[in-house]
Amino acid sequence: MRRKEFTYRGYNIEELKAMSLDDLIEILPSRARRTIGRGFTSEQEHFIERLAKYPVDKPLRTHGRDIIILPSFVGHHVGVHSGKAFVDVLIIPEMIGHYLGEFARTCGDVRHTGPGVGAT
């Protein structure tokens, strides 16, 4: 069975990549529209420029968890810092409009074992 083609608000990935930033802003959620409308920080601009030149198969590391995922990021590997280590994230089309930090958890699951020595 053929996999259904991805669309984001009626646009396929090729159309999204061909869009200008102004056209893309109109279809993004309000939080992303507001952030992009205020302009990218120098750190975010630097990351976007480096990612465009970076090889697709090698993860580009960043501490910037507040970077909005744009259509040009799709297919790239990004190493997002979780506060302890870099988490390798493969950008897929469903992530467009989200922040990089959403895909690198900062807290792990707690696994309790038996009580320690002297606890009972």
Compile the SSE list and pairings.
Blueprint: E1 7-8, E2 11-12, H1 13-18, H2 21-27, H3 30-38, H4 42-53, E3 60-62, E4 77-81, E5 86-90
Parallel strand pairs: 3-4
Antiparallel strand pairs: 1-2, 4-5
TL;DR?
The chain is an alpha+beta fold and 120 residues long. 28% of the residues lie in helices and 14% in strands.
Structural account:
The structure is a single chain. The protein has 120 residues and is an alpha+beta fold. The protein has a single domain (7-103), classed as 2-Layer Sandwich (30s Ribosomal Protein S19, Chain A), CATH 3.30.860.10. Helix content is 28%, strand content 14%. It contains 4 helices and 5 strands. The strands form 2 sheets. A 3-stranded mixed beta sheet has the order 3-4-5, with helices on one face. A hairpin with a 2-residue loop joins strand 1 and strand 2 (11-12). The longest helix is centred in the middle third of the chain and has 12 residues, at 42-53.
